[in-house]
Amino acid sequence: MDIINLNVGNTCHLGCETKLRVLATRGNSVQLGFEAPKDVHIYRSELIFSPDKRKVQTGKARAIPDIGAHFDASKRLDD
Question: Is the pTM of this model over 0.85?
Answer without folding.
Answer: no
